Amino acid sequence: MECFSLLRSDVPALIDHLGDFGEVIAPHGKGDVSYSFEVVRDSSDVVLDYNRTLLPLKKMFLPPVEKLIGFSLKNESYEQVDVAIAPRVFFGVHSYEMQSILRLDHSMLSGSAESNYFKRRQSSRFVGISFEPDEFHFSESVGVVIEEMEGFDLFLNEVDDDFQLYVLTDNGQEMLNGFDKINLTEPEIVEGRNFKKKIRYHYNRLPRVFQYAYHSDVWADVASRCVGCGACTLTCPTCFCFDVQDHVEVTAEDGMRQRSWDSCMLSTFAEVAGGENFREKTINRTRHRLFRKFKYITDEEGLPWCVGCGRCTAFCPAGISMPDIVNELIQEDEKAQYHRTVRV
Amino acid sequence: MKPQVAFFDFTSCEGCQLNKLNFENDLLDILKHVDLVEFREAMDDKADHYDIAFIEGSITSPSCVERIHDIRRRSDILVALGSCAVNGGVNAMKNLHPIDDVRETVYGDDKYLFATLPAMAVSSVVKVDYEVRGCPMTQQDFLKLLIALVLGKQPPKYGSPVCVECKLKENECLYNRGMVCLGPITRGGCDAVCPSFGQFCTGCRGILDNPNIDGMLEVMTSHGISLDEAKKRMLLYNSNEVQL
User: Fold this and answer.
1) Do the chains contact at A228 and B33, CB–CB below 8 Å?
2) Are residues B88 and B183 in the same domain?
3) Residue A340: which pLDDT band, with cuts at 50, 70 and 90?
């Protein structure tokens, strides 16, 4: 693994250089205080210090709203939308975001692969960047440190306001060919970037906590504050549930089948024909969300299906915090365990 | 034969009806599918029977009750159009005050000359088959319903909040911009048009089924408005739906 030094002022030049390897997508400022992954038009617009984007990078592989097929009622025919495989370079991606893509890969590609996702995921290259954790990030608690480089081709680690550029793959090596603003250097370890938010237990102890958490009182407390807007799941980088609907144009001749992100936090999510609802109450839904992140998939794969980006907490209008819920469950479990213990 | 369609207005601003005439690009396509048989704002003709009757406005007087019953008797499908017809809309704010005070404020000494009722949704008086929500209802929403009815399909139902469409468009949350928005508990389907242009949601499409009202009041007050103001905002379009 080679390591180069790179001046902050030379980063736009690097972004321009990466343009030779495909469309570059990087974080940009959005609204008053937010960020979003957008296609780079001008490399000087790219934001290097950001906390998190509104929507996760997932939107580039599994678009929020996507046309699947077009159909004609008149000719009784349909045509599948062809998703082109285009080379893309994702620049300025945080480690937890990369981990979320690797988890999504598992969700979408194991078993029978989701073909549109698979095509969009082809020929993607990733350039990571370090970040300063804010009050919502807690990725270290779910096993993703700031400098986690799995999945990246190149990684930019901020050192004294400039960067150290790590070359991690052959693709990464290829992307630097002909770029002369870097100098070989010794990797440094950066101190002092600490996570402010933490889950009290190591993540491998959480499945056991959740094993006894189904009937916990914590869920009712969360449900009393939750207004059911779905922001937590719609901005979650590892959630992948979607809804499919047909739309007919005003001519009543042509139409399309459309897929859009859905959320298990919405009361309509588990509603079926006849009006029956499998998760009718908010309390059922808040519990389900957490179990999807720390129990159901985790039992099979051995990893928490949460990457600690903090979006669900940062974007919750009611200020409900995922790590706080987990910590409350841990506290409750400790109490219960104390009472369960047989003392002689 | 094409379905015979009619439009009627009750207590309202008539805006929902009027924006049918603004379809322009789609008007000719629409008229290929339906026959317009009665529409006071656009034509003089009258008819005896309607396949689809669109009702705008809320029911606010004894004569309204009589008239809506008459229309219902002569219609196969009856659709409530816009916030006033669906749940009483802004008109229903008068229901928060004693009816005598309301009459006195509006008519002064002549108040006994004008019979009045609390502002009611059309569905409180007659059976309503479908509804198009919003103030005003969006054209897209209306077209989706009309096409579904023409094709004999179920029109789309909206059970998720405005926040969903807002998030899918990757809008910055208005709460992060210092505004107080009713999006989390308001029925979606409007493509989050107001928040997308920087205006907070006022709840014109009605409140979701089984809302967490206390939770929502807590969210609103914790973002800097008084409880009184929060309640007023929630009641603006939903006096008939929310019990505070």
Assistant:
1) no
2) no
3) confident
Range of the domain at B229: 162-235
Quick: pLDDT tens for B46-58. Answer: 889 999 999 999 9
CA triplet A69, A66, A139: central angle to 5 degrees? 145
Counting the structural domains of chain B, the total is 2
Q: Nearest CA to CA, how far is B47 from chain A (Å)?
A: 25
Instruction: For chain A, say whether B193 makes contact (Cβ under 8 Å).
Output: no
Sign of the torsion formed by the C-alpha atoms of B139, B143, B146 and B148: negative
Q: Is residue B243 situated within a structural domain?
A: no
A271 neighbors A264 (Cβ within 8 angstroms): no
Phi, then psi, of A328 in degrees rounded to 5: -65, -40
pLDDT bin (cut points 50, 70, 90) of residue B29 is confident
The pLDDT, as a whole number, for residue B20 is 83
CA distances (Å), origin A58, targets A19, A55, A61, A62: 21, 8, 5, 6
Chain A residue nearest residue B197, CA to CA? A31
How far, in Å, CA of A252 to CA of B105, rounded?
Answer: 49
| Token representation of residue A288 | 């389900």
B25 and B108 belong to one structural domain = yes
Verify whether the Cβ–Cβ distance B161 to A55 is below 8 Å. Answer: no
**Closest Cβ–Cβ partner in A54, A251, A266 for B29:** A251
Degrees to nearest 5, angle at CA B171 with A128 and A306? 45
Quote helix, strand, coil % in chain A, to nearest 5: 35, 20, 45
Residues B130 and B170 in one domain: no
Substitution target in A39, A53, A66, A229 with the highest count of B β-carbons within 10 Å is: A229
What are the pLDDT digits (tens) for A79-94?
999 998 899 999 999 9
In angstroms, the CA B214 to CA B224 distance is 16
- Structural domain spans, chain A: 2-62+83-184, 203-243+262-340
Confidence of residue A144 (pLDDT cuts 50, 70, 90): very high
> Would the CB atoms of B168 and A271 count as touching at under 8 Å?
no
Instruction: Check whether residue B171 and residue B141 sit in a common domain.
Output: no
Average pLDDT, integer, range A115-122: 93
* Together in a domain, B142 and B218: no
- Note the pLDDT tens digit of each residue in B185-212: 999 999 999 999 999 999 999 999 999 9
CB-CB: which of A73, A268, A317 is closest to B160?
Answer: A268
Rounded to 10 deg, the angle between the B213-222 and B227-235 helix axes is 130
Do the Cβ atoms of A231 and B173 come within 8 Å? Answer: yes
Smallest Cβ distance to B177: which of A31, A64, A267? A31
CA of A318 vs chain B CAs: smallest distance (Å): 5
B/e letters for B199-209, b = 16+ CB within 10 Å, e = fewer, are ebbbbbbbbbe
Contact of B55 with B79, CB cutoff 8 Å: yes
Cβ-Cβ contacts under 8 Å between A and B: the total is 111
The percent of residues above 90 in pLDDT, for chain A, comes to: 90
Q: How high is the ipTM of this complex? A: 0.92
Say if residue B135 is in the same domain as residue B15: yes
